[in-house]
Amino acid sequence: MTFNIPVVPANMQTIIDEKLAIWLAQNGYFYIMHRFDEDDRLDFVKRMHSLGLFASISVGVKPKEYQLIDDLAAQNLVPEYITIDIAHGHAQTVIDMLKYIKQKLSGVFLIAGNVGTPEGVRELENAGADATKVGIGPGKACITKIKTGFGTGGWQLAAVRLCAKAASKPIIADGGIRTNGDIAKSVRFGASMCMIGSLFAGHDETPGEIIEEDGKKYKVYFGSASQYQKGEYKNVEGKKLLLPYKGHIVDTLREMHEDLQSSISYAGGKTLAALRKVDYVIVKNSIFNGDRY
Ligand SMILES: NC(=O)C1=CN([C@@H]2O[C@H](COP(=O)(O)OP(=O)(O)OC[C@H]3O[C@@H](n4cnc5c(N)ncnc54)[C@H](OP(=O)(O)O)[C@@H]3O)[C@@H](O)[C@H]2O)C=CC1
Ligand SMILES: Nc1nc2c(ncn2[C@@H]2O[C@H](COP(=O)(O)O)[C@@H](O)[C@H]2O)c(=O)[nH]1
């Protein structure tokens, strides 16, 4: 399939729900439904297919997830995309799940992650991943780096570059996109797509209520490994934030599209491929060069 822009909203409970998934699929955007309405996923696939839309779900690796794959197979329900989504994707549990899905559901496009090393990419590709998701801890709602000392937080673009060099299949750069220009940079260093959470949080169409504080509007954005998601303080590696309310998501998507078109034109080309060829300089100690807007 081809999509309008190389961007997918994060498969997080504060970013995507069924209504937004339908809108994205109907309007030429990729989506990945989150995995936290565990028991609704099979029916979600049925509902998307009954609307003539592609189905794209997430799974974990725990025993219950194998039952979901069995149930989908028993009903001959094959989602177009399945994303295996756990914190540390370079794991035997992910390799086992990849092999199981490949064997049970033929034809599904399998995305697996997250990884932060070339070795991780290669092992998941060898186990059957059709694309790998790169990014350990660069997310806005993430506290992995602080709590564990591990991750690609702070050097996500370099990790994407190293992983893309090792990849023989598409890479999804996941987390750490703070401006639209970061999308073009990720493509430059080998990403086929970017997964984005915080830039999409706070829209009318993303889940959650608008909160007013001191006359300003906000919406909640919380990590999938936060206490708020898990319901208990166990293996917590995420936090909750209030992010400014941003209006309609269609306007944000349109601006991303326009900015990316402009990036391509600065690269001197007409397609995304032009971005891959541009030269670059590394500017030390400068994130915004003072030109915030
Ligand atoms: N991209 C990123 O940097 C990160 C993303 N996340 C997101 O959070 C969500 C939940 O992820 P995850 O917790 O892996 O999913 P799960 O709760 O499904 O856990 C998956 C497996 O990893 C084990 N596990 C979880 N945390 C730890 C830990 N700290 N140490 C050792 N084993 C652990 C679990 O063990 P058990 O059975 O004991 O629970 C389970 O076997 C996902 O959506 C993931 O993408 C989370 C952290 C980092
Ligand atoms: N370490 C954690 N990472 C998380 C958690 N929940 C989600 N995520 C990752 O963040 C990105 C979104 O990043 P953003 O910078 O665009 O906001 C998301 O796709 C996940 O990979 C978490 O609780 N801990």
Protein model, in words:
This protein is an alpha/beta fold and 293 residues long. The chain has one domain: TIM Barrel, CATH 3.20.20. The chain is 34% helix and 16% strand. The chain is built from ten helices and ten strands. The chain has a seven-stranded parallel beta sheet. Strands 8-9-10 form a three-stranded antiparallel beta sheet, with no helix packed on it. Helix 3 links the parallel strand 2 (56-59) and strand 3 (81-85). The radius of gyration is 19 Å and the shape is globular. The relative contact order is 0.12. The mean pLDDT is 96. Bound molecules: NADPH dihydro-nicotinamide-adenine-dinucleotide phosphate (NDP) and the ligand Nc1nc2c(ncn2[C@@H]2O[C@H](COP(=O)(O)O)[C@@H](O)[C@H]2O)c(=O)[nH]1.
Architecture blueprint of SSEs:
Blueprint: E1 7-9, H1 18-26, H2 41-50, E2 56-59, H3 63-74, E3 81-85, H4 92-104, E4 109-115, H5 118-126, E5 131-134, H6 144-148, H7 156-166, E6 171-174, H8 181-188, E7 193-196, E8 211-213, E9 216-222, H9 227-230, E10 240-244, H10 249-266
Parallel strand pairs: 1-7, 2-3, 3-4, 4-5, 5-6, 6-7
Antiparallel strand pairs: 8-9, 9-10
Bound molecules: NADPH dihydro-nicotinamide-adenine-dinucleotide phosphate (NDP) and ligand LQESDW3C.
Enzyme class: oxidoreductase
Binding site for NADP(+): 171-194
Keywords: NADP, Oxidoreductase
Question: What descriptors fit this protein?
Answer:
single chain, 293 residues, alpha/beta, TIM Barrel, three-stranded antiparallel β-sheet, 10 strands, globular, binds NADPH dihydro-nicotinamide-adenine-dinucleotide phosphate, binds the ligand Nc1nc2c(ncn2[C@@H]2O[C@H](COP(=O)(O)O)[C@@H](O)[C@H]2O)c(=O)[nH]1
